From TrEMBL:
Protein name: MBL fold metallo-hydrolase
Species of the source: Nocardioides luteus
Residues covered by the Metallo-beta-lactamase domain: 43-254
GO molecular function, one term: hydrolase activity
PANTHER family for this protein: ENDORIBONUCLEASE LACTB2 (PTHR23131), METALLO-BETA-LACTAMASE SUPERFAMILY POTEIN (PTHR23131:SF4)
InterPro entries linked: Metallo-B-lactamas, RibonucZ/Hydroxyglut_hydro, Sec-metab_biosynth-thioest, WH-like_DNA-bd_sf
C-alpha cells in the first residue's frame, strides 16, 4: 500500500499534508486542511473553487472552533471570507465533512448539497427514524458480545442539532453541475456511506474524492447507523465506476494530493481482494463469526493484532470484517447462518 498518512508530504505544499494554510492544487482550486480532534486522522482537506459568483467548497469540515478558525484563516489568505461562499458540495454526511457546512450554510445563506442516500442518517440524527439498530446490537450480531457491551457503556454524546440540518438540495444519481464556471460530474459512490459522492472535473483533470479514494488508507466499510446489505460490494462497484472515468489528479479528504486516481483505485481494489482471500482462508478453520475472523487478520499497515486495537477501532474492524464476509457470501464463496447469538459464516464446499 502507499506511504503512511502520519508522514505523508503533499506536493502542493511541500509540507506534511495536514500543515495549515491555503495550498493551490490547480488553477482556481485551493486546499485548506482543517484540524480534527482525534489521534488517527489529523485533518480533513477542504477544497475551495473560485468562480465569478463566489466560492464553492467541496466539504465543510467539523463544526468545532479550531476547524472554523482554520477555514476562516485559509480563506483570508486567498482574499476571501465566509460571506463569499455560495455553496458546499458535501461528499458525505460524516461530521468532519458535513457539520461545519451545515452551520455556515445557515449563517451565511450558502447552499448545501448532499447525497440523498444520507437522508436516513440525518433523519436518525434528528430523531425521526424508527427501527434504528444501535452499534452495540450490530456488534453483537457480528459475534462481538463483549465489545458490544463496551460500546453500550460508552454512548456518543447527544448531537447538537444545529450542526445536522437538512441540506438545501439532495443529489440523486449521477448529475452534472455547473459550479464556479466548471462542469462538475457529481458521481454517486456508495460504500463508505450510502450517500457518498465524488466530484469529477474532467476538463480540469481533478477528482474531488472525499473518503471514497484515499491515497494512504482505505475508508471504513460497513459502519453506518443505518446498515445496508452489502456495503463492501457497493464500495468496490463504486471504485470500478470511478476507474471508468479518465485518470485524474486525486484530491482526497484525508492525506496528500496524488497524481493518479486510476493507480490508487487499482491499489484499493487489490487490497480488498487480498482481504477477501484472507477472510476466506480463516473460514476454512470452521464456521465462524466476524469477530473470530477479525482476530485472524492483521490491522493497519503495521499488521497489529486485533487485541491491540482500542474499543473504537476494534468495532470498526469487526464491522469491516463482516462486510468482507457478506461479500464472500454474495459471491457464492461462503454460506451465512443467522443464529440467536450472531450470524455465522462458513466456506462453500469445493
Amino acid at each position: 500500500m502507499s506511504q503512511s498518512t502520519a508522514t505523508a508530504i503533499s506536493p502542493d505544499s511541500g509540507e506534511h499534508w495536514s500543515a495549515p494554510g491555503a495550498w493551490t492544487v490547480a488553477e482556481g482550486v485551493h486546499r485548506i486542511p482543517l484540524p480534527l480532534p482525534m489521534d488517527g486522522l489529523k485533518a480533513v482537506n477542504i477544497y475551495v473553487l473560485e468562480g465569478s459568483d463566489g466560492l464553492s467548497l467541496v466539504d465543510g469540515g467539523w463544526a468545532i472552533t479550531e476547524g472554523r478558525t482554520a477555514l476562516e484563516s485559509g480563506l483570508k489568505k486567498l482574499g476571501f471570507g465566509f460571506g463569499d461562499i455560495r455553496r458546499f458540495l458535501v461528499t458525505h454526511v460524516h461530521r468532519d465533512h458535513y457539520t461545519l457546512a451545515s452551520v455556515l450554510g445557515e449563517e451565511f445563506g450558502a447552499d448545501v448539497l448532499l447525497g440523498a442516500g444520507e437522508r436516513p442518517t440525518l433523519e436518525l440524527t434528528n430523531g425521526d427514524l424508527d427501527g434504528w439498530i444501535s452499534t452495540d446490537r450490530l456488534l453483537a450480531y457480528a459475534g462481538a458480545h463483549e465489545l458490544a457491551a463496551v460500546w453500550a457503556a460508552n454512548p456518543p454524546p447527544l448531537p447538537d442539532l444545529s450542526h445536522w440540518r437538512m441540506p438545501s438540495r439532495w443529489l440523486e444519481g449521477d448529475v452534472r453541475l455547473d459550479v464556479a464556471g466548471r462542469d462538475l460530474d457529481a458521481v454517486h459512490t456508495p460504500g463508505h456511506t450510502q450517500g457518498h459522492y465524488v466530484y469529477a472535473d474532467v476538463a480540469g483533470s481533478v477528482l474531488f474524492a472525499g473518503d471514497h479514494v484515499l491515497p494512504t488508507i482505505t475508508p471504513s466499510i460497513g459502519f453506518e447507523p443505518v446498515p445496508v446489505v452489502d456495503p463492501l460490494g457497493d464500495f468496490m462497484a463504486s471504485l470500478t465506476k470511478v476507474r471508468s472515468l479518465p485518470d485524474l489528479q486525486l484530491l482526497p479528504a484525508h492525506g496528500p494530493v496524488a497524481t493518479s486516481s486510476h493507480a490508487r483505485v487499482d491499489e484499493l481494489l487489490a487490497h480488498h481482494e487480498s482481504r477477501l482471500a484472507q477472510s476466506l482462508a480463516s473460514l476454512r478453520l470452521g464456521r465462524r463469526s466476524a469477530l473470530e475472523v477479525a482476530n485472524d487478520l492483521g490491522w493497519t499497515r503495521h499488521e497489529w493484532a486485533f487485541a491491540e486495537l482500542d474499543y473504537f477501532n476494534a468495532g470498526l474492524a469487526v464491522m469491516e470484517t463482516k462486510a468482507h464476509l457478506e461479500l464472500l457470501a454474495a459471491r457464492g464463496l461462503a454460506t451465512r447462518e443467522e443464529t440467536e447469538a450472531s450470524v455465522l459464516f462458513a466456506p462453500v464446499s469445493e
